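Hey,
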Amino acid sequence: MRVVIWAVVAAVCLLVSAAPSSARGPYGSITVGNWKGGAFTDDKSGTFTHCSAGSTYQSGIFFMVAIAANGSWRLGFAHESWRLTPGEAFPLALTFDGQPAFNVYGMPLGTTLVNVEMPVNCSLINQFRKARQMTAFAQGQLFQFNLNQTGQLLPALLNCVMSVKKNGVASAGEFAVAAKPVAAPQAAPAQSAPNPPQKQARGGTGTGFVVSSTGHVVTNHHVIDGCSEITGNLSGEAPVKLRLVSSDETNDLALLQAPSPFKDVAKIRQNAIPVGNGVVAIGYPYHGLLTSDFTVTTGIVSSLSGILNDTRFLQISAAVQPGNSGGPLFDLGGGVVGVVAAKLDAVRVARATGSIPENINFAIKTGALRDFLDNSAVQYQIAEWHDASKRETSEIAKDARGYTLLIVCKVNEQSAGAKKP
């Protein structure tokens, strides 16, 4: 199978090179679970051609993902039992998480391997980015692929391309980077006497905001994932217990509900916010370490898409820290334009590229938020935007105080030294 793997790599190099040649590499490394790869160059000219990573599955099929230097995407499939005719279209039916199948045509690049081009803006690549499972029906066989790690693989491939184009293959290192959730760990007591093993509450903190007059609260899925108890409180008020109503792991959203309604409710902007517009982020970063009150930061919308052109996200320059997750992102009129979700891992990017990224953070767009609330049958309020709506940041923060909550997640688990069930 090793020969087949390198045949796939070489064939992809043929596709992305200006002239037929063979691949040289990998330079640096991409290591994400079972995915292995790196950067490749044209063997004759030495020109950087693409970054790719692949993995062999138990069925014997080798699956590879590649991004060319020009940003185009390709998938590669190879199996030793295939006997393909180069030049003849190779039909595949790709299914993601049980959704309707995509019928695509790959191009055989030899007797055992196939290339499938993936336009960046097509629905196929969007499904691939967020899916957990993929099946491929080809040559009368059904192949299954676990895609749980593509959330880390795709940013690593993109970072590989950007880094090599900027610094060359001589500076290639480990390219695996990822957007890091910004939920804060809960502060531990400074010192405690040793006790026998017992169940204790552990967890973390995040931020949420009220979206309905019946006490519904939105936060990130990763903030409440695995919690045995969830509480929330407005600044300066007593916490109340929140129950989980629904969650969407794919879009990192969760809906909670308090036992009684809150006085104030956030309003969600309906039309899209343009790139370059100012934004305000409010949340509870490093709760208990810096301050018990929420913090306010400002910035702009840097891009209308996240990592790998993921159109579900906004890229923002407003500073966010661990604990901001799930908090509201406002336009300058005080309407919610996003849910703060992640920040780029600066340390890992610095190790991979040699430079420290600044102010690269992400928020889930209100399109995904509104769909989530509609599917949960929640009646929310709409904020209409016009130029006259601009307000002072202090006014936006004053209003937000009435509906922005500190979210505390507690997890009951065995303390250190106890045997886990």
